[in-house]
Amino acid sequence: MSQMKLILTQEVTGLGSSGDTVEVKGGYGRNYLLPRGLAIQATRGAQKQVESLRRARAAREVASHEDAQALAGQLSGLTVRVPARAGEGGRLFGRVTTADVAAAVTAAGGPELDRRRIELPSSIKTTGEHTVTVRVHPEVSTQLTIEVVAG
User: Fold this and answer.
1) Nearest to 46 by CA among 79, 12, 7, 81
2) How far apart are CA 121 and CA 116, in angstroms?
3) Is 6 exposed, middle or buried (0-12, 13-18, 19+ CB in 10 A)?
4) Tell me, what's the pLDDT at 3?
5) Which is nearest to 115 in space by CA: 105, 124, 125?
6) N or C: which end of the chain has fewer CB within 10 A?
7) What is the pLDDT along the chain (151 residues), one digit of tens a residue?
8) Which secondary-structure segment (H or E) carries 70?
9) 19-26 — which CB contacts under 8 Å span 24+ positions?
10) Which helix (H) or strand (E) holds 101?
11) Cα torsion for 69, 72, 74, 80, to the nearest 10°?
12) 6 has which bridge partners?
């Protein structure tokens, strides 16, 4: 059971944020994180990249916990409709993605969200109401109800 030291390039749920140095099992790093571009090997040269990733994350992240609470309150009061092509019985042609949800939130008058902060419970392949989780801040997340409509 060898361990690998990696630097995350994107946020990985349950592991860390971009720029974090983590130690994971060898198979998880080689077979999942590295091929998908979610992490890079931790080397001395990669430490410079870590600093630029941290600066980018700081600029993108919500400034404070209070701002995150306000944003979560704004999202919870929002009605979001996601239009999607559907066939008979309400089954979609394809599925609703996190990018679709982020665009629908912005179109409904909500704040601009990063699609990586939206977590879908499973693939949304039917019309109707669905609940998604939005991680506004590392310590603040909120539930958002979306309505998938044919159209």
Assistant:
1) 7
2) 14
3) buried
4) 92
5) 105
6) N
7) 689 999 988 888 889 887 788 999 999 999 999 999 999 998 888 878 777 767 776 666 656 777 788 888 888 878 899 999 998 888 999 999 999 999 999 988 888 888 888 998 888 899 999 999 988 877 788 898 999 998 7
8) helix 65-76
9) 19/50, 19/51, 19/53, 19/54, 19/57, 21/50, 25/1, 26/1, 26/2
10) helix 98-107
11) 180
12) 22, 41
Here the tokens at position 78 are 């929002």
Instruction: Enter the tokens of residue 96.
Output: 């609703």
| CA nearest to 102, candidates 134, 127, 77 | 134
Count of all residues that appear for the chain in the document: 151
Torsion angles phi and psi, residue 129, rounded to 5:
-90, 135
Q: Burial level of 58, CB count in 10 A (0-12/13-18/19+)?
A: exposed
Q: Report the C-alpha gap between 35 and 75 in whole angstroms.
A: 34
Q: Under a CB-based contact definition with an 8 Å cutoff, are residues 35 and 27 in contact?
A: no
Find tokens 């870590």 and name the residue: 50
CB 108 within 8 A of CB 78: yes
Give the residue carrying structure tokens 């665009």: 103
